[in-house]
Design goal:
Blueprint (H helix, E strand, L loop, with lengths): L6 E2 L4 E5 L5 E6 L1 H7 L2 E5 L6 E2 L4 E7 L3 E5 L4 E6 L9 H4 L8 E5 L11 H9 L1
Antiparallel strand pairs: 1-2, 2-3, 3-9, 4-6, 5-8, 6-7, 8-9
Length: 127
């Protein structure tokens, strides 16, 4: 089930605006996690790093492949999920809750509007 309130990138990251704070929480979709298989490593960005929408901001590795993850918005890394690299099984049990990767203080939250909504993302997965 694809959460309706989230926005999505074609590279399968999800983004959620946390209220009116300008903070965007970022994670990886169930579909991407399923495609990766057994995840063995996650390199988180550092708090304070500047990111640009559409650019690589961290790396994930599985037994199948290494993949870059892309920022859904431009801004500054405000927080990272330090628990995740030590507990990669969270990806399988809570992709949209416990397995968030980072929170970005967005320079412009309007960038979220350029991402796919749930219906568009679901259509992408059917292609």
């Amino acid at each position: 089930m694809i959460p309706q309130e989230l926005r999505y990138l074609e590279s399968h990251e999800w983004a959620k605006l946390d209220g009116g704070s300008g903070i965007v929480t970022v994670g990886l979709s169930d579909y991407a996690i399923e495609q990766l298989g057994d995840i063995v490593f996650l390199e988180l960005p550092a708090v304070g790093d500047k990111v640009v929408k559409g650019s690589e901001f961290c790396t994930i590795e599985s037994v199948k492949a290494a993949s870059d993850l892309y920022a859904p918005v431009s801004g500054e890394i405000a927080e990272v999920n330090d628990e995740l690299p030590e507990n990669l099984d969270l990806f399988k049990t809570g992709a949209y809750e416990d397995a968030w990767i980072a929170r970005i203080k967005a320079d412009d939250i309007a960038e979220l509007e350029t991402l796919m909504n749930a219906e568009d993302y679901e259509n992408l997965l059917k292609e």
